[in-house]
Amino acid sequence: MTMLVVTGTSTDVGKTIVTAALAAAAMKMGATVAVAKPAQTGVADGEPGDIAEIQRLSGVVDVRESARYPDPLAPDVAARRASMPLLTLQTVLDDIRSLTADLVLVEGAGGLLVRLGEDGFTLVDVARELDAPVVVVCSAGLGTLNHAALTTLALASAGLACAGLIIGSWPAEPDLAARTNLDQLSVVTGAPLIGRLPEGAGTMTRAEFIAAAPSWLDRQAMKGILSAW
To answer: Is residue 37 among the annotated active site residues?
Structure first.
């Protein structure tokens, strides 16, 4: 079994669609895939969240969501506001380890250091306990170099491996900043750029998404991710 954690340089950079693309590409390569989401916020009970979107696009079946809170806030803050129990690191780890696919993808909430629950644990703690590499999803435009550098620096400081960077939404008409960032992202972070998803990928049908997803990701990088399996 291979585990891979998916984080972002911030919120709304495309983590969910990237997770779906990783799942679709891995399944096309013959792997079974499961997806875990430790904390979902901003979604009420019974409403579709990020896991449902990943399922809709990729067709992955085996999923876990450890906790959800109604307010669109950091999970620990959202839990307190709703007077709900704080998520524990052990609960998250148990839920992830209950999945038995060839590749288990773990999608975080917001950025790398967002507090997920009790004792202020973050996705860093989850990745460390799982001994899992981390993919960083970033934006294409101005500001992304700093955000990506900060995120990869935090990973390195924690002793965690960065499996690469993926641009969550590549514009149909990229501006100068986006075009130069294609080279500079790897320069400033020391991590390879292993994919970029086209703008609007999340609006595709499942068939369209599954057919296109492998072309958005570096095939050699995907082979490396799946090498343990």
So the answer is: yes
